C-alpha cells in the first residue's frame, strides 16, 4: 500500500495583493500594482458549468474571458488550476506577497475564484497540474510527485515520475493519462508501473473532452485528438505560438498558446481566436 501523506491545514484566507512573475516560477515584484486586465502566460483553462464562463489562470491570477476581460480574486501566481464543479475551483501556485510561505499548496474557491482557502500542503507544494475524477483529487508537484486523495486530507503517492500535465480517465478514475517532461505520453495507475503510449505524438497539455475522447497539444501549437482513450492520435490542426494549456468539454474546446486563446466547437478541427496576446 502506498504511504499516506497528511498535510496540516490552516484555515486562513489568502490575502490579495499585486505581483509580477518574471518566469513560470519566477520572482515577484511588490511594485507591480497596476490593475490592467492583461492575460499573461496561461497556466490553466476551465469552463464553469454553472454559467459557461471561461476562466483563465495566469501569472497574475485568474481572469474571466467573455465580451470583456475581468480579473477575479487576488493577483497571485496561479499555476495548477481546474474547475472541480459549478462555481468551484482548485488551484495552486505562489502568493502575491514576498512575505510568508512561497507556495500556496492546494487551495480551493467556492465563489468563482473571488476568494481562496488553503486545503492541503500549505507552504509546502507548488502543484503545476491538478485534476479531479470520480472520488479522487490528483495533484502533481515536481518535488512531491503525483499524489491523490479522496478527502483532500489523507494523500497517497501515485508516482515520482516527472510530469507536465495529467488527465483523469472519466470511465476509470484510477487511470491517468500524463505527459512527461521527456515529451512522452504515459498511462499511470496507482500501484503499477507507468506505461508509455506507443507511437503517441509529443504532447504537453492534455485533457479529456468526453469518455474516450482526449485532446492534446504539441509543443508548438499542434492539436491532436484521440478517440480511443489516448491509444492512437490524429493531428487536427496547427495553432500559432508555443502551447500553454488546453481545456476540452463535449462540443467546446479551448487552447492557449503564446499568441492567444482559441476556441473550437468541432473537436479541434477548426479554431476561432477569442483573445490575442500582446506582442
Please describe what this structure looks like.
There is one protein chain. This protein is mainly beta. Helix content is 0%, strand content 47%. The chain is built from no helices and 25 strands. It has strands at 4-6, 42-47, 54-58, 61-65, 69-72, 77-85, 88-94, 106-109, 117-120, 129-133, 136-141, 145-149, 154-159, 163-168, 176-180, 185-188, 195-196, 205-210, 213-217, 222-226, 234-238, 243-249, 252-257, 260-264, 272-276. The strands form 6 sheets. A 5-stranded antiparallel β-sheet has the order 1-13-12-11-10, with no helix packed on it. Strands 2-3-4-5 form a 4-stranded antiparallel β-sheet, with no helix packed on it. β14 and β15 (176-180) form a beta hairpin. The protein starts with a strand and ends with a strand.
Provide tags for this entry.
279 residues; mainly beta
Tertiary shape: globular
- H and E order: EEEEEEEEEEEEEEEEEEEEEEEEE
Helix proportion range: under 10%
Arithmetic mean pLDDT: 88
Largest sheet: 5 strands, antiparallel
Q: How many beta strands in the DSSP annotation? A: 25
Overall structural class, as computed from helix and strand content, comes to mainly beta
Strand order of the largest sheet: 1-13-12-11-10
Low-confidence segments = 7-35
Rg over CA atoms, rounded to whole Å, is 17 Å
* Strand portion: over 45%
End-to-end separation: 50 Å
Layout of strands and helices, then pairs:
Layout: E1 4-6, E2 42-47, E3 54-58, E4 61-65, E5 69-72, E6 77-85, E7 88-94, E8 106-109, E9 117-120, E10 129-133, E11 136-141, E12 145-149, E13 154-159, E14 163-168, E15 176-180, E16 185-188, E17 195-196, E18 205-210, E19 213-217, E20 222-226, E21 234-238, E22 243-249, E23 252-257, E24 260-264, E25 272-276
Antiparallel strand pairs: 1-13, 2-3, 3-4, 4-5, 6-7, 7-8, 8-9, 10-11, 11-12, 12-13, 14-15, 15-16, 16-17, 18-19, 19-20, 20-21, 22-23, 23-24, 24-25
Amino acid at each position: 500500500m502506498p504511504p499516506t501523506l497528511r498535510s496540516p491545514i490552516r484555515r486562513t484566507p489568502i490575502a490579495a495583493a499585486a505581483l509580477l512573475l518574471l518566469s513560470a516560477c519566477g520572482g515577484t515584484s511588490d511594485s507591480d500594482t497596476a490593475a490592467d486586465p492583461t492575460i499573461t502566460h496561461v497556466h490553466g483553462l476551465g469552463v464553469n458549468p454553472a454559467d459557461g464562463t471561461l476562466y483563465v489562470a495566469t501569472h497574475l491570477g485568474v481572469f474571466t474571458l467573455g465580451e470583456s476581460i475581468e480579473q477575479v480574486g487576488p493577483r497571485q501566481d496561479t499555476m495548477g488550476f481546474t474547475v472541480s464543479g459549478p462555481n468551484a475551483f482548485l488551484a495552486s501556485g505562489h502568493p502575491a506577497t514576498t512575505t510568508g510561505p512561497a507556495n500556496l499548496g492546494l487551495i480551493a474557491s467556492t465563489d468563482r475564484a473571488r476568494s481562496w482557502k488553503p486545503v492541503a500542503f500549505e507552504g509546502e507544494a507548488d502543484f503545476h497540474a491538478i485534476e479531479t475524477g470520480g472520488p479522487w483529487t490528483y495533484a502533481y508537484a515536481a518535488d512531491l510527485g503525483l499524489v491523490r486523495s479522496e478527502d483532500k486530507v489523507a494523500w497517497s503517492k501515485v508516482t515520482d515520475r516527472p510530469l507536465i500535465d495529467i488527465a483523469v480517465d472519466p470511465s476509470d478514475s484510477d487511470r491517468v493519462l500524463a505527459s512527461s517532461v521527456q515529451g512522452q505520453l504515459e498511462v499511470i495507475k496507482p500501484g503499477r508501473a507507468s506505461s508509455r503510449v506507443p507511437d503517441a505524438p509529443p504532447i504537453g497539455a492534455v485533457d479529456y473532452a468526453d469518455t474516450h475522447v482526449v485532446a492534446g497539444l504539441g509543443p508548438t501549437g499542434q492539436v491532436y485528438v484521440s478517440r480511443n482513450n489516448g491509444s492512437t492520435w490524429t493531428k487536427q490542426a496547427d495553432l500559432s505560438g508555443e502551447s500553454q494549456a488546453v481545456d476540452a468539454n463535449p462540443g467546446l474546446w479551448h487552447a492557449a498558446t503564446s499568441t492567444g486563446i482559441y476556441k473550437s466547437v468541432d473537436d479541434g478541427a477548426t479554431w476561432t481566436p477569442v483573445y490575442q496576446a500582446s506582442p
